[in-house]
Amino acid sequence: MDNRLTSIQKVNDAEIQLIQQQSALLLQKRANGFNGELKSSGTIVENYIKGLLSKHLPGSYRICSGYIATADSVRNDNNLIQHDIIIFDARMPPIHSFGISDIEVVCAESVCGIIEVKRTLNRKSLKSAIGHLHTTKTVLDSYRDGLKSKSKSAPQIVGPTMSIGTYAPFYAVIALDSDENEMSNEYFASEVVPSIHEFVDFIWVPSTSLLATFMVRTEDNQSFYPPTVSRNIEQNMIHCALYLPPHNEQARIYSIAVALYRSWINHTSGAYLGLDENAAYFGFNDYCTDVSTENQTHY
Q: What local confidence, expressed as pLDDT, does residue 234 receive?
């Protein structure tokens, strides 16, 4: 590995260790910690992951915490979908922003990435994260005839960076640390890989070099990372690339993770949001035909 990349990795490791120490100090159950600050511990981790992702986010995207709304969900009594990190097409403003934080409500059409953040990745937390992402996937699969579905989205569109992309969002789980005793090859093979196949693009723990990503295997048994996160390919051609600790090539795995994230997020895009679609989020269906002319004055 190039010495320069190794030096960069050492800086990344130092940053992660600092966040680990700060987060651990605030854990409720830690001896000599600060009781009652568990939420603060999680916020420190979440903000670090946001900062890491923001460094590699093109200018045509934004990152926030908050809620994903559909034109249907904004008018019913169900809770909106909530996620730790949402990456969305910056050309589409949020439906609502809470001024005291970076919490926003974004429309489903604008969503390009959905990330669940965990402080420590173990079987329980990973199952919870994948389950939560799956709930969102189910909603997006049925919304506007699967506009944001992994399998139904248009295979080739022009994204915000004027490159070939897809409407399908990037799904990921990123954790600060992992329980090496629980994150075994056997567990990933039996429990995690099926979820990777279905829709999760990326499971990453920078501190331990745990990285699981989906790949495509060709008919002649060659494997490659696809340019987009769309699943418009036959299911038997999808498989998982898995890196588990311990590894002596931590810098290389970190580089693979960042390169995949940069490529995949750069090739997803917000979907069309016209007058009718925008109006539906603010209380009108079929704006042009539903607005009464009785209260209009024409000059």
A: 76
